[in-house]
Amino acid sequence: MKVLGKVFLYLGIFFIPVGIIYGFMTNFDEWAGFPALLVTGLMCFFLAFFLMFTEKKLGSQPMDNYTGEIAESAGEYGFYSPWSWWPFAIGVACMFVVLGAAIAWWVVLIAIPFAAAAVIGWVYEYSRGDHAH
């Protein structure tokens, strides 16, 4: 995580000045690239902070060892429901949200409740039914 944190920190340091230079070169008239570069740099700083902060709590990871083997990172990464359809429902709902943002805002207004229902279903799928705890 230490290496990834440094990579995102350097990317953030790169994107912010490039965004400002891009803004000056376009006289701040072009409103797609300038904010996109600044937000990309900001998100890189967020990721760098998160990875460096998490690395302090977890300590050294196998990915930080330059002479390490791939087998050192083997193990359990979490629990995933292989039978769950909720991630698919979230994906479909998010597809309609993005499609609505590109086509018409009324589609977004219709898709947001479906996305919220899919997220709620995914969060609470172990609270009821056959797999309730």
Label this structure with key terms.
mainly alpha, single chain, 133 residues
Order of helices and strands: HHHH
What is the rounded Rg?
21 Å
Give the DSSP E fraction (strand runs of 2 or more residues): under 5%
How many domains in all? 2
Beta strand count:
0
Q: What's the total helix number?
A: 4
Helix content: 55-70%
Transmembrane segments: 7-25, 31-53, 83-99, 105-124
Subcellular location: Cell membrane
Membrane topology: Multi-pass membrane protein
Enzyme class: translocase
In short:
65% of the residues lie in helices and 0% in strands. It is an all-alpha fold and 133 residues long. It is flat, with a radius of gyration of 21 Å.
Report on this structure.
The protein is built from four helices and no strands. The chain is an all-alpha fold. The protein has two domains: 65 residues; 40 residues. Helix 1 runs antiparallel to helix 2 and helix 3 packs antiparallel against helix 4. The mean pLDDT is 88.
